[in-house]
Amino acid sequence: MRVAIIHYWLVGMRGGEKVLEALCDIYPSADIYTHVFDPTAISDTIKRHSIRTTFINGLPYSRRLYKRYLPLMPMALEQIDLSDYDLVISSESGPAKGVIPTSPAVHVCYCHSPMRYIWNMYNRYYHDSGLMTRMMMPPLAHYLRTWDVATANRVDDFVANSSTVAHRIKSYYRRDAVVIHPPVDTRAFRPVPSSDVGDYFLMVGELVSYKRPDLAVQAFNRLGLKLVVIGGGELLNHLRKIAGPTVTILGPQPFDVLKHHYARCQALIFPGEEDFGIVPVEAMASGRPVIAYGRGGATETVVAGKTGVFFNSQTLDCLIEAIERFRRSDFNPGDAVARAAEFRTEVFIEKFSAFVGRATGVVSDVTSLDYGARAISLR
C-alpha cells in the first residue's frame, strides 16, 4: 500500500514520536506529513522517511512558536494532497486528523488524545495563561472545537492509546475507538539487586502544572523523605525555589542517568493525570513500583497492591497517606517487570498491524522485526 502518516509536529521525541517510530517500522515506505519539522530534535528512524511540511513550517520562528499558529493549522491540513495514498494514518494530539483523504483511501486515526487545550484541560490552560491569551482563547477554542468535531467524520476508524482516551473520543466525537496501548521500549530497562536500591523516591516528567510536580515536592518537604525530580519545563525554577533540603531537582538528564534512577528508587511518584503515561511503565520495567494518582492512563498500567498504590485526590494529605501506605507494603520487582512487558513495542506492532489489516483488507508489508525479546511475524 501507499501510506501517508500525518503527525501534528516534529520538534522533539516524546510519547507521540515513539508511536511514530513504531509506525515507521511497520510502514518503511510511508511518507510523513507534519506542520513543523526540526531535524535536530528527531530520531534517525523517523528521518529515514520522506518528511513533508505544511506552510506552518515556513512561518517566523515556527520551531519555537508553533503553538501560536494553531488557528492556521486546520487550513494547512486541508491543503495536503493525499490523492496518491491508499492508507492515511493520522497521529492525533495536536491537529492532524483534519486532512482530506481521497476516496477510497482508508483513514485510521491513532489518537493520543483529542486536543487537551480545547477539550478536557481547557479550563486549566485558560487559568494558567496571561491576560492576552485568555482574551483570545474563548473564540479560538469555539472555532477549533467546531472544526475538530466536524473532521471526526473524515476518519474511518479511531484507535485510542487508552480507555481514558477512548472515553474522550466517545464524549467529544460520538465515535467508538479500539484501544491499542502505545509502544514502550521495555527492553531498555532492567532491575538491579535489592542491595542497590536507594533510599529516595523519584518523579520523572515534564514539569508543567497539570502533571502536579508541586504536589510531590510539597509532600516530601513535609515528610522529610528524599525525592529526586528529573525533567525540564516551565515550573523548573519554581520547584527549585520551594524544594526543601530532602528534595533534589536535577532538571533534564540524559537517558543513562534516568535509567539509573528508575532502577534504584524506592518508588516512582506519579501525581498527574495522563492520557496513558509511559513513565510508570518504564519504572515498572526497571522493577520499581509506582505511587500514582488514581485517574487516567495509570489506572490501566499500574496494578493496585501488586505493582503500586493509588491516591484518589490530588491533595497533599492524600498523596502523603499513599506514600505512608506504600512504606508499609512489600512489592515484588518481578511483578512490576512482568506487568511492564505487556506494553512492549512488539505488542503494539502486532496489534496495530492486525487492526489496519482488517480495516484495509491488506496484509502489512512488514514480515519481521526483532525487538530483543523475540522476532515477530506479521504475515
Number of helices: 15
Look at the helices and sheets and give the structural class: alpha/beta
What helical percentage do the residues reach? 25-40%
Shape designation: globular
Spell out the key features of this protein.
3-stranded parallel sheet, 15 strands, 379 residues
Overview of this protein structure:
The chain is of the alpha/beta class and 379 residues long. 37% of the residues lie in helices and 17% in strands. The chain contains 15 helices and 15 strands. The chain has helices at residues 15-26, 44-47, 62-65, 73-78, 122-128, 131-151, 163-173, 213-223, 236-242, 255-264, 278-285, 298-301, 316-327, 333-341, 345-360; strands at 3-7, 31-34, 50-53, 87-92, 106-111, 157-160, 177-179, 200-204, 226-230, 247-251, 268-270, 290-293, 308-311, 368-370, 375-377. The strands form 4 sheets. A 7-stranded parallel beta sheet has the order 3-2-1-4-5-6-7, sandwiched between helices. Strands 8-9-10 form a 3-stranded parallel beta sheet, with helices on both faces. Strands 11-12-13 form a 3-stranded parallel beta sheet, with helices on both faces. Strand 1, helix 1 and strand 2 form a beta-alpha-beta unit. The longest helix has 21 residues, at 131-151.
